[in-house]
Amino acid sequence: MSRKYKQISFEQRVVLQTLLSQIKRPSGQPNISQIAREMNISRQSIYNELKRNSSPIYKKYTATEAQKRRNERRKNSNKPYLIENHPKLQEYIHKRLKQDGWSVEGIVKRTNKWEKETKEQIGKIPCIETIYRYIYRQAKDGGEDLRVYLRFSHQRRQKRKQKKDRRGIIKGRKFIEERDKIVEWRNRIGDWEIDTMEMKGHKGYILTMVERCSRYTQARILSSKNAQLCTESIIEMLRPFAESGWVKSITVDNGKEFAYHQKISDVLKAPVYFCRPYSAWQKGTIEAIHSQYRRFIPKKMSIEMISQKYLDMCVRYLNHRPRKVLDWKSANEILYLHLQSKLRELKYTFQQTKLSNFQVESAQKKKTNFSADFLVSG
Question: For the chain, is the Cβ count within 10 Å smaller at the N or the C terminus?
Answer without folding.
Answer: N
